[in-house]
Amino acid sequence: AFGISKHVKERYGNKDVFVNFIDKYIQKPQESISICKKQVIKSFGLMPPIGASLTQEERKSVSLYLYNLTK
Predict the structure, then answer these.
(1) Cα separation of 9 and 19, whole Å?
(2) Comparing C-alpha atoms, which of 45, 53, 6, 3 is closest to residue 26?
(3) Measured between alpha carbons, how far is 66 from 62 in angstroms, rounded to an integer?
(4) pTM (2 decimals)?
(5) Are 66 and 3 in contact (CB under 8 A)?
(6) Which of 7, 31, 16 is nearest to 63 (CA)?
(7) What sign results for the dihedral spanned by CA atoms 16, 19, 23, 24?
(8) Contact by Cβ (8 Å): 36, 11
(9) Which residues contact 64 (CB under 8 A, 6 or more apart)?
(10) pLDDT of 57
(11) CB atoms within 10 A of CB 51
(12) In 3D, which of 58, 52, 68 has the Cα closest to residue 9?
């Protein structure tokens, strides 16, 4: 989780943009918006849509948790 948080924060440093990106991505992961290198996706695939079964409040909590992992 730390590595993902770091990479997303490097690309989307603004807290609101970060939280919105994570919220959207965990609901429906897409290669077109992924921050992972294509080779990584080719080797491991995209993550499952873990946020699809979470409430909006739960997704926000996950997003904020990831945001706060790194400074």
Answers:
(1) 10
(2) 53
(3) 6
(4) 0.86
(5) no
(6) 16
(7) positive
(8) no
(9) 19
(10) 97
(11) 21
(12) 68
